Amino acid sequence: MAAHALDYDVQLMLRVKAGDTSCFGVLLERHRHPVIHFLYRMVQNHAVAEELAQDVFLRVFRSRASYEATAKFTTWLFRIATHLALNWLRDAKKDRVQDSLDAESSDAPALQLADRNPNVEQHMVSGTRLEEIRRAIASLPEKQRAAVLMHKYEEMEYSQIAKVLCCSESAVKSLLFRAYETLRARLAHMA
Amino acid sequence: MNCPSKTRNGRLRLIEFATGRARAMERMELQFHADSCPACRSLIDEQRQVFAALDGWDAVAPSRDFNRKLYARFELEANRSWFRRFQQVFEHPAWIGRSSYPLAIAAVLVVGFFAGDASRFITRWRGIVPATTAPAAAPATVQDPTAQLIQALDDLQLLDQIDSVKHRVHRSRTRPL
Which residues in B lie closer than 8 A to residue A76 (C-beta atoms)? Predict the structure, then answer.
């Protein structure tokens, strides 16, 4: 607790717990962008990322009464976000398998799946380059993907990533090691 | 210094070095080693290229009505049904993994079983009261089956009488003048 005494987010959350709901608005403004960015890079679909981000903040607000300041607020926040993203990816994978089975078992024309690419963004940034990065990240197993995104974009320590993913620090190191090996093989030529 | 590129932990140290987040002492040490080690220098360069590529992936900005939609969901939440509230207990962040649903249902069943049978279970276990107890007296409100049958027949007769009266009234109304 003492280690997190100066954590501004923890103080805000404790005030939300005490009934000061205006502090929730401050927390939302501080963490809305990182949470949406993380979820967007995880699921690679803007609409889904926003929907999941709303779920994250809804759950934070819902759990305010039972909140305990045992860790950094962002650890807790990203734990919820990662949990929701992994569930969504698992469900999406199941749906894709089911769709492919349905397509095989019937003579119906091939199912038109929604384009997961963010078109506006693709036009703004060099398309092929971005597509290659997107594919490289998407090719990573989900936990490796989450670990890389938290390490690279959120600049989290191994210990914090471990708490978010509910695993040991050495497991996180292993995840990151394998993920970066894969990314080096796929992206090192790009710079 | 042993070459860090030969071990997994060493390679991770080189990755941290490439991010620029390594501690000052370690940064100096690794830089000194990399200057004379082509393998480590190559790994650091490749990793920096990966980070540079990842930096080019800007995430999109949240939509303008994100907060409005969120607060609308809060309002919806305030008006939700009791069943949904019960479901949401299991969506608490502390409940990690979907295996919590069957566990929760099993827990409810076990608690229900013991709550329903608790007194008999406890007294039998302690040996205070014999296992077989005399059946409780029937409640005063329960009627004799014969009386119930007579009551039902009376009701039927009454219904029959009402029906015949209705029939006669209907015939008198529909009779041609």
Answer: 93
